[in-house]
Amino acid sequence: MTGTKSGTLRFLHVRKGTAFRPCLEIGRPITSLAASPDQRWLAVGDADGGVAIADLEEEREVLAKAFRRDAVNSAVTEMTFNPRGQIVVAAFQDGAV
Q: How far apart are CA 92 and CA 8, in angstroms?
């Protein structure tokens, strides 16, 4: 998976470097990605401090604003799911978690 500044998720074939699944349009600059342990969910962090959740099985965004830091526009730099895939932890460019 790759995320672009234009907000497009691409699913790539590693050896060929070509897309093998349809793209998913998020519409915001993507700065971080994290897949759940079961590979069902994808957390998508953006440049404005927002976190969205995409359903990889249905290839659609299900929570456009699962979380957003309204007070500060600080890009999401890292994310991870807990082992059960129920909680996402996000770190931001300004050092907040």
A: 21
Determine how many CB atoms are found less than 10 A away from the CB of residue 54.
23
- Between vectors from CA 24 to CA 22 and to CA 25, what angle results, nearest 5°? 135
Is residue 4 within 8 A of residue 22, CB to CB? The reply is no
Q: How many Cα atoms are found within 13 Å in the side-chain-facing hemisphere of 63?
A: 14
Asked whether 26 and 46 are in contact (CB, 8 A), the reply is yes
- Structure tokens that stand for 65 in this block: 């604003």
pTM, to two decimals: 0.79
Residues 6+ apart with CB under 8 A from 69: 49, 50, 92, 96
Cβ atoms of 11 and 19 closer than 8 Å = yes
Which strand (E) or helix (H) includes residue 95? none
What are the pLDDT digits (tens) for 27-47? 889 999 999 999 999 999 988
